[in-house]
Amino acid sequence: MGTVKWFMFNVHFWSALLDVTLSLLVIPYMLFPAAAGYALGLFTMIGMDLALQTTVVVIEIGMTVLSILVLFENRYTFLAGSNKLWIRARRIFIGFCYVVACTYFIPFNFMVPDQSLAGPSVIQRLRTLRCFYSGPIFVLTQDATVVAWTTAVKLLAEFTFIIALVILTFLNILKKNKVASLSKNTMALQKKFFVSITIQTAIPIAVIIIPLVYCAYSLAYEFYSQAMNNLCFLVISSHGLVSTIAMLLIHEPYRNVLFRWGKAERQSRTMSISIARSFNDRNSTMH
């Protein structure tokens, strides 16, 4: 656990930061299939540029996914330490992934069109929008094709690598179990822990992937539903909460402590009620 705790902390840090950003700092109001929307959070109140806010959200989503990738890479390296080629290349690869996650969206800031012309074109494109929204609109780009494809390819590459790491790590555990290079108890613990973190990360990953799939569908087929747009970002903003609940329920030490606290709280309440009843009964007898 000692070798992986900081990687797990990294996952929870970015998950929590993404939640805070989406639900407090930015609060995006998106208008898919147009690459447009508005921000209603604290960043807007202090006057932060909307293109920069968009970049912050995209980077945080990328860093959250990358933190999961790095977690599984750590598990693979720990269990497959004999792969010398990967040990030499891993730092370069991970460093490259961090650079891409932090910088790939920056060039799109230079594609931002003249808002005085782009805003009315979005309202014209989404004719039902004017029925319930009359606020300001920020348009990132009038043609989201390049942005959408670049983001899709990046996410596909990252999730493909995560799946490959999960499969390779699990196969490595089975291999070591067969050759008995580690004790049965150690291998059982390693297998149990690996399955736990796989489930723990698969659940919140789904919370991100499912809304993004809808966003891609909306862009591809020009489908507009403001209710679905709002629901998607509401679901994504619950990513950290879902991740925390998954961690507390899946990992036995956390689960035991959580249930112990609940049991102690119930016992404390029961004892308090019993003492109060005894005190009341004694007073009634005395009177």
Automatic annotation (TrEMBL):
Membrane among keywords: yes
UniProt keyword terms in alphabetical order: Membrane, Transmembrane, Transmembrane helix
PANTHER family: SERPENTINE RECEPTOR, SERPENTINE RECEPTOR, CLASS H
Annotated transmembrane regions: 20-43, 50-72, 92-110, 155-174, 194-221, 227-250
The organism of origin for this protein: Caenorhabditis remanei (Caenorhabditis vulgaris)
Name of the molecule in the record: Serpentine Receptor, class H
